Amino acid sequence: MESLRRNNSLFIDQEALFALFLCKEGLLEPVSHLMNESEMQKNEKNQIFPLSFILAPAGKRNQEVLQNASKGEILNLVCDYKICGELIVDSVFPIDKKQRLIQITGGDIYSKKAQNIYKRLGDFALCGDYQLTPQITYPINQTLKDTILQTKKTIQASSITSIMLDVSPITRIHERIFRLILDENELLVLFLFKKQNENLLSFEIRKQCLEYVIENYLPKNRILIFPLNAIYLFEGAHGILLNAIISQNLGCDKMVIGETHPNLTFYYEKQKAYSIFDTTKEIKIKVKFLSEFVYCQQCKTIVSVKTCPHGKHHHINYHARFIQAILQSGLIPPPILVRKEISAKILAHLFPSRFGNLIKQFGTMFADNGIIKEQSEEDFYIKLSQLYQTHSLN
Q: Are 254 and 286 in contact (CB under 8 A)?
C-alpha cells in the first residue's frame, strides 16, 4: 500500500470522490471547479446551480489539516486508505453545517438519512485545482459519453431520453414506461442508481434483472444502461435538478420523471403551475412528467390513474416495498406485478440452494416435452409459477 503522509492528506469518502469526478468530467456544467466562499454565497443567493459545489469533509484530522493549510499547499486526497488525487489549496473557509444540510435535503433535517449526511459535513470547506488518479475506475466516464454518441450515430437517433431508476425490482410498470418513451424517442438511457448501502436487492441482481428484460422483451439496440452512484448530493429536491444536469451534459435532450416522485415539488404563481425545474436557468433539457400507473382489476390491464374511470379500490399499486416484502417471504409475486422469470432470478439469489433436495426427488415432474433436464433453482421457480397459471381446474 502506498504510504500516506498524514500531515498533508485529506481523507474523503467514495461519495465525495465521485462528486469530484463528475465535476472534473464536465458532467456538472456550468460548474467546473470547487467553489470558493464568494462563489458559494453568490450561488446561494442567485441559485445559479442547484447546490453550492464545495468540499467540506468531516473528521478531527481533516479539520486540523484544513485549519493549518496555506495557499499553494498540495494536499493528498485519500479514499479508502489509497491516494486518489491531489488538491492545490487556494482558500479555506468556514461553513454553516446546518444551512448546508438544509440545502442538500431540501429542509428535511431530522430524518435518519439527514443525520447521517450531517455527520459527514465538516466545519470548513476548501477550494483549489485538483487532479484525480486516472487508475481509479468510475461508473461514468468518457467511454460512457462516447458510447451514447456512437449509439446515437449508429441508429441515427434524433432524440435521446434519460430516466433515473432504482428498479427494486423491475416491474411491469417499468416495461410500460420504457415502451411509451421508445414510442416517441429513438434512444433511451437508463441511469441505474448504485447505493452505498444496498438493502434487500443488490445492485448486481437489480442490473441483471433489468438486462434480462431488455434482452428478451424490448428493442435492446435502443436502450443503454449506466450505473450512477447514489451520492448524498442527489438527496432532496436538488437531486432531481442534478440528475437533469448530468443527463443534459451527456447529450440527452429529454428526461422523464414520475409525477409521484417524492422530491418533485410544484407551486403556483399568478395562476400558473411551476415545478422545481423552473428555479434554475441552467437546465435546458426538456422534462416530461409521467402520471402514476396501476393495474386495474376492471380494465384488466396497466392504466394511468388519470385515464382510468374506475375507483382506487379497483387499482393494484406497484409499491416496491410491497413487492420486496413478498419476495423476502420467499413467495412468487403475481405475474401482473413482476415477470415470473424476474421473480425466479431474485428468489434464487435470496434463497440459494433452497430446493436442492426437492429438485433431486421430484425434478421429473418438470420435464420439458418429455425430456428430463437438470433443473436449477431458477428453473424450479419458473416451472412452479407456470403450474399456478393452470386455469382448467380453478
A: yes
In 3D, which of 168, 234, 164 has the Cα closest to residue 204? Answer: 168
For the CA atoms of the chain, what is the radius of gyration?
24
C-beta separation of 59 from 122 below 8 A: yes
Per-residue cell: 94 = 468556514
Residue 4 has pLDDT above 80, yes or no: no
pLDDT exceeds 70 at position 389: no
pLDDT for 273: 60
**What average pLDDT does the segment 55-79 reach?**
94
* DSSP structure class, residue 21: H
Q: What is the predicted pLDDT for the residue at 2?
A: 46
Distance in angstroms (rounded) separating the CA atoms of residues 230 and 277: 20
**Residue with C-alpha cell 412468487?**
332
Helices (H) and strands (E) in the chain, counts: 13, 17
pLDDT tens readout for residues 360-377: 666 555 555 554 556 678
Q: What are phi and psi of 368, to 5 degrees?
A: -100, 110
Cell matching residue 104? 442538500
C-alpha angle with apex 347: 342 to 359, nearest 5 degrees? 110
Eight-class DSSP state of 30: T
This prediction has a pTM of 0.82
**Torsions phi, psi for 287 (to 5 deg):** -105, 130
Q: What share of the chain is helix, strand, coil (3-state, %, to 5)?
A: 40, 20, 40
223-239 per-position pLDDT tens digit: 999 888 877 777 767 78
Region of 338 (left: φ > 0; alpha: ψ -120 to 50; beta: rest) is: beta
Written as nine digits, the cell of 8 is 498533508
Evaluate if residue 7 carries a pLDDT over 60.
Answer: no
**Which residue(s) pair with 93 in the sheet?**
125
SS3 148: helix
Strands ordered across the beta sheet of 254-258: 223-229, 187-194, 160-165, 254-258, 286-290
Q: Which residue has the cell 426427488?
A: 361
- Across the chain, mean pLDDT equals 84
Cβ(359)–Cβ(338) below 8 Å: no
